[in-house]
Amino acid sequence: MVMRHSENTSGSEVGGYRPPTACPVCGATLVTTRLGCHSCGTEIGGTFRTCEFCSLDDQQLDVLRVFLASRGNLREVAKHLGVSYPTARSRLTDVLSALGLAGDEEEELPEEELSRSEILRRVEAGTLDPGRATELLRGL
Q: What predicted TM-score, i.e. pTM, was given to this entire model?
């Protein structure tokens, strides 16, 4: 089966379409077997190693780019995405899961990095002293 989509052959970067990663017939992982130059038309055939980041969707790639650009600062990621710190952390965990790098156990956040809702949840669960919670809430 040959599947094609229209391509921009003007020499500029091909836009918009991300290559599929799974076979539409059997679901197996697809491999890259052909590369081509849109400028001169050269084509190269073979079996090429796949890119581990190519399976990430656009949102996951954005999270990864911002995470790397901020040198691992999740507060900067949260600010860029316009979300809370725990949401940014969750999105990074999604990226790690998609790459097969997520650990089995959820890492516990340091108290200083807890959101207001997480502080209150821990007080309610009895895992955080109300006095310490008050200090943390004042620091937010």
A: 0.53
